[in-house]
Structures are given as C-alpha cells and as structure tokens.
Amino acid sequence: MKHLVVLALACSLALPVAAKNIASVNGEDITQDHFDQFVSLLVAQGAQDSPQLREQVKKEMINRLVAVQAAKKAKLDKDATVQQELELAKQSILVRALMANYLKEHPVTDADLKAEYDKIKAEQGDRKEYKLRHILVKDEDTAKELIKAIESGKTKFDAAAKKDSIDTGSGQNGGELGWGPASNYVPEFAQAVESMKKGEISSTPVHTQFGWHIIEVEDSRPITFPGFDEVKPQIEEMLRQQKLAAYQDGLIKAAKIVETDEAK
What we know:
By secondary structure, this protein is α+β, with helices and mostly antiparallel strands. It has helices at 2-19, 32-44, 51-73, 80-105, 110-124, 140-152, 157-164, 168-171, 187-194, 228-254, and strands at residues 21-25, 28-31, 128-137, 176-181, 206-208, 211-222.
C-alpha cells in the first residue's frame, strides 16, 4: 500500500510537467510557454484570441518544427548563407525591440501632439486653394501672342485652350484645372499662382519643365484646416519617427566607430 501511495504521488507531481507541452515532434517538445507566447504575439498584432486561433497556432508550430527538423537534418543550419540570414534576422528583431522599448519609456504625450498641431496650424492655417485654368504651349512667342489675343478680346481663354493647348486633358475642358493648393503644381507654376489675384490672367508666360503656361486664377479661398482629432494619428506617427531618428542618431554619435577600407 505504501508503494502505491508513493507511486500515486509521483504521478500527480509529474502531470503538471507533462501538461506544459502541447505537442511533441520526433521527440522534441513544443512547450505551453512557447505556445502562449506565440498567441500573445498575434493578439498584440491585432488577432482575436479564440479556440480557432489557438488551434491554428498549434498546427503552425507543429508544421514549423517539422520543417526546422528537416532543415537541420540536411545541415542547412550550418550553411554560411543561412547563418548570415539568421544573424541579420536576429539583428532586425533586436533593433525593433530596442526602438519599441525606447518609445515605451519615452512616449509621445497628448501635450506633444497638441503643441505640434498648433505649430503646423500656425504655419499652414492661412493657406489658400485656387480654381485655375491654363493654356500650355511649346514656345514663349506662341504664349505671348495668345496672351495678347486674349487681352484684346480677339479670342477667349477657353477657346484658345481648346485650340492651342498641348495639355489635351485640360485643354478640351477650356483649360480647367479645378480647385487645389498651389503646392499641387511645380514650383514655377505655384509661385506665379500665389502672386496673382482672383480673376487675373498671367501677363507674361510662365516657364516650367513642361513648356510655357498662360494661367488664369478664376477664384481662391482659404483651405479649411483639419481638426485635431482628424490628424492626431498622423501627427503621432510623425513624432514617433522623429523621436526614433533622434535616438538612433544619439546612439551613433556616442558609439566609437572605426571604419576600414576592407568593405570598399
């Protein structure tokens, strides 16, 4: 009886140890801890923890281990190229973990977000958008002649655009470009637009990489600046990237780096 009690106690102590393995592949165990870590990683990335997910994870871990064992049997883990790829993957994971840890310890605060929003709004809050038309031609003389014809009333802007503009997309619509900020266009075009008044036609042709433009500002209006909540995610991501860039620059500056000519 004493031996039976000892045996029963031994079995009861062994059960939790056995329960910590979810599967065994060719004698190699997949532990409950590794399984739980895999599930937690997927949940952190947005997956919903469920019996279906756990079953999929279990199958995936078994399939991976089968493949890894086969790779090791073929001695692929000793291959120089594979070892280099493993090292690079390890480095990438460590760098990603380092950056995530830095952001955890130095988070972007609501105060940071609001301050950046106010700064951007102050810089861009007075921007305008313009309703434009243009005529694009290949040479300056042609552009000047068209300006004279439009100003004298010999032809109308939309008629000249349909007849002479090499920008066939807008030309067939009388040169219409629609509404948009000046920043939508190349710098020379944008600068000319911003210097003109509503209803004005450029008195001299505007040269860009595309040719010579005659521009008409049909109308202008202030751009409605988006609300804080609307742009908060974009500002947060921008500040996070700025923090990480500054942190990485600091690490590089603090490191003792000696370069040689061997890599050249």
